[in-house]
Amino acid sequence: MKPTAHPLRPKVGTVRGAFRLGNSQIKRVGVSRWNWSDSYHWILTLSWPMFFAWVLLAYLLTNLFFATAFYLVPGSVANARPGSYLDMVFFSIETLATVGYGYMNPATTYGHLVASTEILLGMAEVATVTGLLFARFSRPSSRILFSEAAVVTNFNGVPTLMIRAGNERSNLILEASVRASLVRREHTLEGQLFTRFYDLKLEREQSGVFALSWTIMHSIGIDSPLYGKTQKDLHDEGTTLTVAISGTDDTLNDFVHARQSYAAEHIFFGHHFADILSDKLPGPGGDVRILDFGKFHDIIADGSDDGAASGGAMAHPG
C-alpha cells in the first residue's frame, strides 16, 4: 500500500504579533509595542527580503534627506544645475559613499557642514549594516527536519507516541538532547481553566551523535498524560505537543536547536511511519544504505499489508 502523506498544519490566518503553538495563535497584550533595546533582536529575526528592504529604505531616506538639505540652500553645491533636485540626490549618494568624483563639490560653509555630517552618518550606516550582515550570516542554525505528523502505534506491545526527526546536513550534531512536552487545558477543583505542561518521558533523551534520523518515542503507560486518550479527547482539551532538539554542530562548533509543535489533529492514532532506510545496496566503494527523505513524512495505517514499520522508521539517532 502506498504511504499517505499528511500535511502538518492547514493554512490558517496569521495574527500580527501572535506567537504560534500548534494551531493556536497567542497574542500578547498589555505590553509596550516597542523598546529600543530590542532593535538588535528584532533585526536578527527579520527575513532576508525584509532585512534588505529596510536597508534600502534607510539608504533612500538618508539620501533624500540630505539632498533636500542641499536643495533648500541654492549655491551650496558647486557645478550643480540650478534648481535640479536630481543633481542634489546624486551628489548626496556620492557624498554618503565618500566616492568624491570631483565634478560637484560643496561650495559654501553650509554645504561643507551638511556634507561632513552626511559622511559621518554614512560611515556609521556602513559599519552598522556590515555588522548586522555578519551577525545574521554567522548566527548558527540547524537543518533538523521534523515529521509533519506525530503517530501513536504499538511498539513491543505498548502504545507509543512517535515523532520522526532527521538531520538534513551531511554533518554531525554532537551531544544531542531532545525534550517533548504536552500542553493542554484543564479545570481545577475550583472550576478554573488552567493550562498545564507535562514533560513526556522518552525512550531516549540523549545521543552522543545525531547524524541521520531519530524516532522520538514516548511509551503511553498508566503514568502518561496520554493514557486512555483519543484524538477527540486531545482536540477537546486543546492539546498541543511540542518537541525540541538541541546539540553542538560539529562544523560550526556552536550550539544549535530546533523545535516543532503539533496540534491534536496532527497526532494520528493507529498509524506508523513508513520505512525510510533501505537494505544494503551494492556501490562502487562497497555496500551502501539509502536514507530516503522523500518518504520522511509518510505515515501508514496500522494493519496495512506493507507490514509493521521496520528499522528505518524506528531508528535511534545515528
UniProtKB/TrEMBL annotation:
InterPro entries reported in the protein's UniProt record: Ig_E-set, IRK_C, K_chnl_dom, K_chnl_inward-rec_Kir, K_chnl_inward-rec_Kir_cyto
Any one GO molecular function term: inward rectifier potassium channel activity
Potassium channel domain span: 60-137
Organism domain of life: Bacteria
Main location (coarse class): membrane
GO biological processes: potassium ion import across plasma membrane; regulation of monoatomic ion transmembrane transport
Keywords: Ion channel, Ion transport, Membrane, Potassium, Potassium transport, Transmembrane, Transmembrane helix, Transport, Voltage-gated channel
Cellular component, GO, one term: plasma membrane
Compartments (UniProt record): Membrane
Domain Inward rectifier potassium channel C-terminal as annotated: residue spans: 144-280
TM stretches of this protein: 51-73, 85-104, 110-135
Membrane-related topology note: Multi-pass membrane protein
PANTHER family: INWARD RECTIFIER POTASSIUM CHANNEL (PTHR11767), INWARDLY RECTIFYING POTASSIUM CHANNEL 1, ISOFORM F (PTHR11767:SF102)
Protein name: Inward rectifier potassium channel
Lineage summary: Bacteria, Pseudomonadati, Pseudomonadota, Betaproteobacteria, Burkholderiales
